[in-house]
Amino acid sequence: MESAQVKHIPVLSKSLAEQIILPPEGVMVDATIGQGGHSYLFGRFLRENAVLIGFDVDKGALRVAESRLQGLKCKVILVHSNFSQTAEKLGELGIEKADFILADLGVSSVQLADERMGLSFGEDMQLDMRFDKRIKSSAADIVNKAREDELADLIYKFGEERASRRIARFIVEHRKREAIATTARLADIVCRALSRGSKKTKRRIHPATRTFQALRIAVNDELGCLSKLLDSGPAVLKKDGKIAVISYHSLEDRLVKRSFRKNESEGIYKVLTKKPIVPTRAEIAENRRSRSAKLRIAQKL
User: In terms of residue numbers, what domain contains 165?
Assistant: First the structure.
């Protein structure tokens, strides 16, 4: 399936619009600009002197975002970089502070459908999972080269998969016969490992979901990059500026919650969402991938 054919729906856009009012001449940082959906929603209300800076490690996404945002009145700057470098890149651009930082940490339908990404177990693709092709090690490298105990620990830590040791053992057994090169083969191996487990275990998600999540997080150092973005927030935001993060699993959400609370306890932030904002039933019905989204917002004091 070609990625261009997949419809991209920005998650929790209505909730964000209700919570965030940008100054017409403000500075917005979209840390994960993707297809430009969220940026377009906010950028429509920015004037000529305003600046919208979008980060993404996927050059293809930046090209789509550029096309989508070209009609906006504000200045649009697109940066081919990981959001962990937000503070450094803004400094290089001569931008001292931002009114709003937004990070949507989700994997989009467009990315899942893109064969170059090698992310999806729903389609048979070359196993890769690198959002940024400048990263040296792919998921295939990890699956085929890591020791069994390293694989088990990785799947447990980043996928919160209880059957991680069994899955790792199956992976090692199968790669001895032939290298694991595709997403379909890896998914099949994980399913085989779990099918022999307890019959009492019931899963509401695909059996390979947690393993694929773990590998993707490891390949892209997603939690490390998120920590760097969160750490840079207080220095990058203007007084009364806001940071909003949409996360999709407990590991991400826990990092965001702890960072916001720590900054609040130190008198740096005011947390505006004591409990995360989640999608309505109507939004989930329209965009099933939004079902696990959690939005947290903090304001710089």
Answer: 114-220
